[in-house]
Amino acid sequence: MRRFAIRILTLFTLILMPVAGHAQAEAVLVTASAQADTAPEERLGPVTGFPIPRYVSIRASEGNARRGPSRSHRIDWVFTRRHMPVMIVAEHGHWRRVVDRDGAGGWMHYSLLSGERSAIVEVDMLPLYARPDTASAVRAHAELGVTGRLRECDVDWCLMEVGGYRGWVDASALWGVEPGEVFD
After folding, report:
1. 2 pLDDT exceeds 80?
2. Contact at 8 Å (CB) between 167 and 159?
């Protein structure tokens, strides 16, 4: 949408801009286009006002994901793992469209979701460090596909709780955290 608006602005500028100012207008448009390409477009949910997409977790031990945002729509998927991370990609009333790391999902009632953060380990035998430093002691290792609760994250590290162990892990080895995301 932003690129389309920039192209229309470019066409408008070329038609109305005198020939002498054409080079200056082109430089301004190139700068605006570069900023539009590098800056991610932040959308806010129309219902909650929270960013979309965002990560949450499944609150219930079983939750239906439906084809549309109501109980009258067909069930496409059933999530059976409590605390599993999912990404909210849309909102409509009391319903949230969610997807898991494989892209499966559908519309779920908001009461089945929790703001408590969790993540799935994406590498095998991920070390959980005592501090956010690879030189610190390793408290445990998490296997590929394990789900753990996130307590906090800084730019490169997340404090994760898995199977009774708590430690700092490399944030890039997790699904359920945006690159560079910070929260506590």
Report:
1. no
2. yes
